[in-house]
Amino acid sequence: MASLSHFLIITVLFIVPFFSCCVNAQLSANFYARTCPTLPTMVRNAMRQAVSREGRMAASILRLFFHDCFVNGCDASILLDDTATFTGEKNAFPNRNSARGFEVIDTIKTRVEAACNATVSCADILALAARDGVVLLGGTSWTVALGRRDARTASQTDANNQLPSPFANLATLISNFAAKGLTATDMTVLSGGHTLGQSQCSSFKTRIYNETNIDPAFATTRKRTCPASGGDTNLAPFDITPNRFDNEYYKALVARRGLLHSDQELFNGGSQDALVTTYSNNVAAFTRDFAAAMVKMSAISPLTGTNGEIRKNCRLVN
Ligand code: HEM
Ligand SMILES: *[C@@H]1O[C@H](CO)[C@@H](O)[C@H](O)[C@H]1NC(C)=O
Ligand SMILES: *[C@@H]1O[C@H](CO)[C@@H](O)[C@H](O)[C@H]1NC(C)=O
């Protein structure tokens, strides 16, 4: 009797938790608490340095994470370099000459490997860095669940097909996000990432020259640095405060000053108008909901357990 109850206690205390940890393969905030306790501090310090050097870097890293998660999950696939025998996602249309911040991830990875080698995935580093960039520029923080592993593959085709286009209409944007398990509300909240950063002229040229649901004074201003012909890589901010995580993006949409066609689709007489108006009037509601939606986006199809690998160099499969 005593030995049976001992057996049961041992089973419940040790074996059950062991299996529930690995079979369910859940992400958890304390995944590296014992194996790399300084990880959060290393990422935060590196992001503070990078963002103080260039405020836009918070935006670029946030976008990298979005483009990672939307293509077969948050698995660092976007970080893999093309080689003679491998085609990754970096040269997919939405990323080529546009995705940036890879060197910052390299710097963080180098420091993390020095402190805790072969332990922390590039996918987790990117998830933490994206959060820290947002917080550094005034966003609300969220808890990053960890334990993602890194992909051994990437897909340029999937990146081309699954990342949303700046020329998309509302229905297409909603379905792009639905394909990732995200609602129309999530889509409108996450598009608020465009409170940070800049876009190249080629992505908004047609809008400022040929669309009618645009504030004429705004179109005139944008045309000064985005000519009808040429200047395709010239940059313009998404809102008037590209280095502050605030609700100016939504105020711009209400004023018909959305930069991309896809931005203005969120406030163009459709289903998202009311939410855009709410966020334009309530920055706290936006930053709170953005944090919650980032938690959802961060959980898209992670590799866990024994799937994937812990890359040594974020640019290369081991
Ligand atoms: C809703 C569909 C979306 C579309 C069509 C879209 C499209 C774009 C485009 C075309 C650019 C400019 C790229 C360039 O000119 O080089 C851009 C930049 C950016 N996007 Fe999005 N995006 C979307 C959603 C998101 C989401 C969900 C996030 C993050 C949560 C995000 C974060 C950013 C950031 C921060 C930038 C600025 C990057 C920088 O300055 O380096 N975007 N996006
Ligand atoms: C990690 O570092 C230790 C000590 O420098 C070294 O012996 C070990 O081979 C490294 N492990 C990997 C997987 O690189
Ligand atoms: C605007 O539309 C006209 C007529 O369709 C077209 O010729 C022109 O190339 C367009 N301009 C831009 C910048 O898209």
UniProtKB/TrEMBL annotation:
The active site is at H67 (proton acceptor). It is found in: Secreted. Keywords: Calcium, Disulfide bond, Glycoprotein, Heme, Hydrogen peroxide, Iron, Metal-binding, Oxidoreductase, Peroxidase, Secreted, Signal. The record marks R63 as: Transition state stabilizer. Its EC number is 1.11.1.7. GO terms for biological process: hydrogen peroxide catabolic process; response to oxidative stress. SUPFAM superfamilies: Heme-dependent peroxidases. The keyword Secreted applies. One of its GO terms (cellular component) is extracellular region. Binds 2 calcium ions per subunit. Substrate binds at P164. Heme b binds at H194. Disulfide bonds join C36-C116, C69-C74, C122-C314, C201-C226. GO terms for molecular function: heme binding; lactoperoxidase activity; metal ion binding. Residues 26-318 form the Plant heme peroxidase family profile domain. Its cofactor is Ca(2+); heme b. The keyword Secreted applies. Residues 1-25 form the signal peptide. Ca(2+) 1 binds at D68, V71, G73, D75, S77, E89. Ca(2+) 2 binds at T195, D239, T241, D246. Removal of H(2)O(2), oxidation of toxic reductants, biosynthesis and degradation of lignin, suberization, auxin catabolism, response to environmental stresses such as wounding, pathogen attack and oxidative stress. These functions might be dependent on each isozyme/isoform in each plant tissue. Belongs to the peroxidase family. Classical plant (class III) peroxidase subfamily. This is Peroxidase.
